[in-house]
Amino acid sequence: MTADSPLSGRLDDDDYPAYTMGRAAEMLGTTPGFLRAIGEARLITPLRSEGGHRRYSRYQLRIAARARELVDRGTPVEAACRIVILEDQLEEAQRINAEYRRTAQQESDGSGSGSDSGSGSGSGSA
């Protein structure tokens, strides 16, 4: 196999479904039943091989590990899945909010110095 083979790019891809259910459960120190349960709770949706077997990506395993930590502390599986989903939604909302603030700050810093000149018709459109 050469460095240019199709597989070489997949090895670094966090979304590539490289792990079987058995291997994923082993890596997480859990059971296949736990992986099925978080799938049923729609926390993760494993891809299926041509033979119909579940396949998990590294990204999915990180999410499953977060849920497992909560379950290990006594949180029911359904609740743990909902918490992880809400944490991700909050993180994304905070990222978007910070981006909006940054953009607004840049616009206010830039518009104060040169707003007297121009066409006078408001913001330009492309």
Task: Write structural notes for this entry.
The protein has 126 residues and is mainly alpha-helical. Helices cover 60% and strands 6% of the residues. The N and C termini lie far apart (48 Å).
**Large-scale geometry:** elongated
Would you report the number of β strands? 3
Q: How much of the sequence is in beta strands?
A: 5-15%
Provide the succession of SSEs. Answer: HEHHEEHH
Question: Would you summarize the structure shown here?
Answer:
With 126 residues, the chain is mainly alpha-helical. It is 60% helix and 6% strand. It has 5 helices and 3 strands; from the N terminus they run αβααββαα.
What are the main properties of this structure?
single chain; 126 residues; 5 helices; 3 strands; 6% strand; disordered C terminus
Secondary-structure map with pairings?
Layout: H1 6-10, E1 19-20, H2 21-28, H3 32-40, E2 47-48, E3 54-56, H4 58-72, H5 77-114
Antiparallel strand pairs: 1-3, 2-3
Helix pairs in contact: 4-5
